[in-house]
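name: query_chain
kind: protein
chains: 1
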Amino acid sequence: MIRWLKDLLASHAVADGAAVAHDIGAAVAEPPVRPTTTRGVTGVEPPAAVSVGAAAETLARQLALVIDLNVCVGCHACVTSCKEWNTAGSAGPLCDENAYGANPTGTFFNRVQTYEAGVFPLTETIHFPKSCLHCEDPPCVPVCPTGASYKRKSDGIVLVDYDKCIGCKYCAWACPYGARELDEERQVMTKCTLCVDRIYDEQMAPADRQPACVKACPTGARLFGDVKDPLSEVSIAIRERGGYALMPEWGTRPANQYLPRRPTSAVGATTPLPSARDEAFAAHGSGHGDTDGTGFA
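structure:
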């Protein structure tokens, strides 16, 4: 976990600091198991959560996305399909405030940031999709005062229990990736769920039991699977193509991984363009440059 967050949780500056940390840990350890509602997958109850902290449990299974930056064309099909599925699904509705005004705001689980890398004339356009990374040691979980944020033991997905969330934004403050957003209408924190109400829906064809963004991507830039399974498609892609985690220095161990862009040559140039991997880390890794209230830089 992020060192400053560990220090904060372990601090004795508050008289009851230890007791508060214990209470929070107890709340996170056992997320609510509610009867099936419109917020859950039909017939599927939320499994137990994993305790997160200095001695976070290592899970045998971790579902995640692997995003290929080399073939992402910035079409935003993943963004629109995610919005369409989730606003009508168990995580919705996802509100849009003043959608057609001068300063529109809205709730999105997935966004694509586009920027230029390099120095003219040797420049290239980078499309960088970003959503919750479902970290193995997510800092958003222990800071939640109500236990609304939790990580599931069965598949490693990090979720929010809307019935417990009070919209305090502590999780957004703790997340170094800017992946949490406040739904202004419901006043609860929202994030990518990996379409948990879709991937376990036995009424769907097996080929469709993938996150909506994966199904919608026209270039196959998004892969989905168990990164702990060495024989899975995602693990092979990470291993063979140099997949990397975003901002590993934060110690959150992101489950989602990125496949780097391959150096290409500009028209008429003889020298390949440098890889954009370092620029991606430096310019768009952190969500703390948020200026529009969306939680993203």
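note: DSSP finds eight helices and twelve strands in the chain.
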